[in-house]
Amino acid sequence: MSNRVRFAPSPTGEVHIGNIRTAIFNWLYARHTGGQFLLRIEDTDRERSTPAAIASLLEVMAWLELDFDGEPLYQSSRLAAHTAAADQLLADGHAYRHAKGEGGEATLFRIPWDSDAIPEVCEAGDVRLELHAKTPVAIDFTGVSYALLTKKGKASPQAGALGGFHGLQLLDADGTVLYELDPDIKAVLGGESRQFEGVAAMTFRRRELVYTDLVKGELRKPLDSLKDQVIVRSDGAPVFHLANVCDDIEQGITEILRGDDHVENTYRHILLFRALGAAPPAYGHFPMIVNDQGKPFSKRDGDAYVGDFRTKGYLPEALRNYLPLLGWSPGDDREQMTSDELVAAFTLERVNSAAAQMDVNKLKNLNGLYIAAIALDDFIELIQPFVASQPWAAAADSTTLRTVAELMQSRCKLFTDAADWSYFFTDDLDFDEKAARKALQKDGVAAALQQLSDALAEKEPFDEAGIEAAIHATTEKLGLGQGKLNAAIRVAVTGTNVGAGLYETMAVLGRERTCRRLQFAGDNLCAGSSAQG
RNA sequence: GUCCCCAUCGUCUAGAGGCCUAGGACGCCGGGUUCUCAUCCCGGUAACACCGGUUCAAAUCCGGUUGGGGAUGCCA
Question: In this structure, is the CB of residue A145 within 7 Å of any atom belonging to strand B?
Answer without folding.
Answer: no
